[in-house]
Amino acid sequence: MEQKKDRKHQILEAALRIFIIKGYSKTTMDDIVNASNLSKGALYHYYKSKKDLFLSLIDHWEIYTFKDFYKKTSNNKTASDTLRFFGQNVLKTLENKKYAYIAEVEFWALSNQDKEIRERSQLLYDKLLNLFEKVVEKGIKNKEFKNLNIRKTAMVILAVFQGINWFVIFNEKLISPKEYIENSIEIVINSISK
Q1: pLDDT, tens digit (0-9, with 9 covering 90-100), for 115-159
Q2: No. of H helices and E strands in the chain?
Q3: Is 125 exposed, middle or buried (0-12, 13-18, 19+ CB in 10 A)?
Q4: Which of 81, 167, 172, 184 could form a disulfide bond with 160, CB atoms 3.0-4.6 angstroms apart?
């Protein structure tokens, strides 16, 4: 069981690297075989096609890239501090795993072209939006935040965090990712706080 998990992780990590370098359309299963140092049979044992592998990669990306994002230790934090904690995790990921954001851009691009990829990406989007809704709801319940439309506020917060992708795509020079995240979070917190 553990070996199966390790092999799948090895394949998914190799696939992530290759998809980032070559993009989905130019990546072949042979590229992933070579990058994973496993046999073609091993690859096809776990994934029947490139698309199947890519769909699995969306979940893998979330689990291994943002494992601290969903920590339960935020229960004793204020809603504002929880948002700041998320911001720190986004910055840590950008610093240590910049490729994760490049992969996210590839997921977005393919979501427009493929129904299954869009549906899988939608599940991830809904999960993140739900997480931010819970934070906003907690802030309202604890009288930290104004009585706001929870869904709309969560969408604004998610958009702030998604904005970090611009730093990966366009290599912004006038403001650092740290300044962007910290300032944006504080603007949101100040605008929704009582």
Answers
A1: 998 998 898 889 889 999 999 999 999 999 999 999 999 999 999
A2: 10, 0
A3: middle
A4: 184
Strand-pairing partners, residue 160, are: none
Tokens 């904005």 belong to 163
DSSP code, position 40: H
Tell the residue number behind the tokens 């904690």, with chain if given. 85
For 145, phi then psi, to 5°, come to -110, 155
- What residue type is assigned to position 147 of the chain? N
SS3 145: strand
The predicted model scores a pTM of 0.81
Report pLDDT digits (tens) over 46-87.
Answer: 999 999 998 888 887 777 766 666 665 556 889 999 999 999
Distance CA 106, CA 83 (A): 26
Provide CB contacts within 8 A for 135, sequence distance 6+: 79, 82, 83, 154, 157
